[in-house]
């Protein structure tokens, strides 16, 4: 059974992960707009970073 602090902690984890992934996506779009020829490398780095943030978010949710 989840208590109120656990629920609040889980909510903060989800919000933080969402903001992090959003920031990565926005920055990647700006970088691609500035250098379209590097879009493949930028997308790859963006996806790896987003996956790592999501993984940390899941691990934190299980710990909460």
Automatic annotation (TrEMBL):
User: Hey, where's the site called Reversibly protonated during proton transport on this chain?
Assistant: 54
Q: Which residues form the V-ATPase proteolipid subunit C-like domain?
A: 9-62
- Membrane topology classification: Multi-pass membrane protein
**Where in the cell does this protein reside?**
Cell membrane; Membrane
Give the signal peptide range. Answer: none
Q: What GO cellular component term, any one, is given? A: proton-transporting two-sector ATPase complex, proton-transporting domain
Membrane-crossing residue ranges in chain numbering = 6-24, 45-63
Query: Which InterPro entries has this protein been placed in?
Result: ATP_synth_csu_bac/chlpt, ATP_synth_F0_csu, ATP_synth_F0_csu_DDCD_BS, ATP_synth_F0_csu_sf, ATPase_proteolipid_c-like_dom, F/V-ATP_Csub_sf
Q: Which SUPFAM superfamilies match?
A: F1F0 ATP synthase subunit C
Pfam family name, one: ATP-synt_C
**Record key words, sorted:** ATP synthesis, Cell membrane, CF(0), Hydrogen ion transport, Ion transport, Lipid-binding, Membrane, Transmembrane, Transmembrane helix, Transport
Name the HAMAP family for this protein: ATP_synth_c_bact (MF_01396)
- State what this protein does: F(1)F(0) ATP synthase produces ATP from ADP in the presence of a proton or sodium gradient. F-type ATPases consist of two structural domains, F(1) containing the extramembraneous catalytic core and F(0) containing the membrane proton channel, linked together by a central stalk and a peripheral stalk. During catalysis, ATP synthesis in the catalytic domain of F(1) is coupled via a rotary mechanism of the central stalk subunits to proton translocation.
The protein depicted here goes by the name ATP synthase subunit c
**Organism (species):** Flavobacterium stagni
């Amino acid at each position: 059974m989840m208590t109120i602090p656990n629920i609040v902690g889980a909510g903060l984890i989800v919000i933080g992960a969402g903001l992090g992934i959003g920031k990565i996506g926005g920055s990647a779009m700006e970088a691609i707009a500035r250098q379209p020829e590097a879009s493949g490398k930028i997308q790859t780095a963006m996806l790896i970073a987003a996956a790592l943030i999501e993984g940390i978010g899941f691990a934190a949710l299980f710990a909460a």
